[in-house]
Amino acid sequence: MRSKFALALIAALAASQAHAGVELIAIGSLDAHQGDRAVRTAGPLENGVPGNLLGGLGSGLAYAGCNTFLALPDRGPNAVSYDAAVDDTTSYIPRFHTLRMALRPAGPDAALPFALTPTLERTTLLWDAYGLYYGDGRAANLPDGAPRANHGFRHYFTGRSDNADPARGSGWMLDARLDPEGIRASADGDAVYVSDEYGPYVYKFDRHTGRRLDSYALPAHFYVAKTSPHGADEIAGNSAGRVANKGMEGLAISPDGRTLFGAMQAPLLQDGGDGAPVLRIVRIDLRTREVREYAYPLSNTGTASKPKYNGVSEILAVNDHQLLVDERDGKGFVDGSEAKFKRVFLIDLDGATEVSKLSGATALAAAAVNKTPFLDVLAELGRHGLAPSEVPAKLEGLSLGPDVVQDGRRRHTLFLANDNDFLPDITDSLHPQGADNPNRFFVFAFDDADLPGLKPQRFEHPRCEGK
Fold this sequence. Notes:
Strand order of the largest sheet: 1-24-21-20
């Protein structure tokens, strides 16, 4: 008869053998040549690109319960050069897409244990009932920035950078320009929260209609006093506030739906700007609107050998005080280079120093939170044969997903999506004959032991789209 010690040892050994760590289990994609469900916006934009091209889905990704996800493109297709005065931005109407993600066990000869089939269910355009500021376009030799779809009390946001009142700072909430980068579903399932990189701001939208319902402002030192349609001019004209095109990139929501977390993509100008080593993460109480700030130390920027890398692309709540942080470079597929750094870290804000009264890289570095590695994305994709030049440059969307059963045990899933820059095909020195550039989704599985504090978000009445 075995002793209790022997039985415990056997159980421990079995558990250690069953624990596989964070591993890739599926890859799925959506064709980027097709249009989305907002057919009435299909007319060509200023750069000739269709206004409803299905692209950029990985800027933000949010699980909404069952097999439903919300995918968020950013400010639109500005990778096609046409007018540098507005940073090649267009009158693309910001939107989010409702996707159904079918994740099923793959066949015995498949390269990965699961197969992922994404399906586009619905497209929701973002708008406000109040009048918004649209630029007249004269300085850039363009038509005015008001979308043709505007009518009555429905004023659509756009991605065009000149749709900001030059008489006001970037904290003016009635500017029509919107660069959405993060999305999360509310606990009741009726609304979505979206982070705006132009402000930076966090907005609440009706999930069904796309109407803006509320705004959550950040402290004044996040905003720039002088706005400009040209990002380089905006940076040169300000000494404080967010860096142009590197504002609030990441957005997370606590499991109970009462708290939002937002992450800047790069340090503020007064903290050293793009290339400095520490950026800010905010915590927003949705009931009181109180904002607290924390310092996050970057691993891949701020040195001579790693200058001005992209920083943080997304954050994801593990519970009400721990976050996963997606930190990456801008290298890889689409950029015509080899990816070097794409990792997910775990941080804990419990006991961390509140830094709203601090300014400058040195002060923030001394108060920065501790971080531990969770997933080396590049290494895991490489383990499955994906070369660094084939790893998407902009892996930005990060979300939990439904649990799966693998090898007889229940495991959690983590979805990572790419922003393909609205480029359905790319041709560069590494792909001289051209290559497809779909909207791609990578699914990783992990165990309780990998993330012991995990408390997934619960939805009061999740919408099981397409089920």
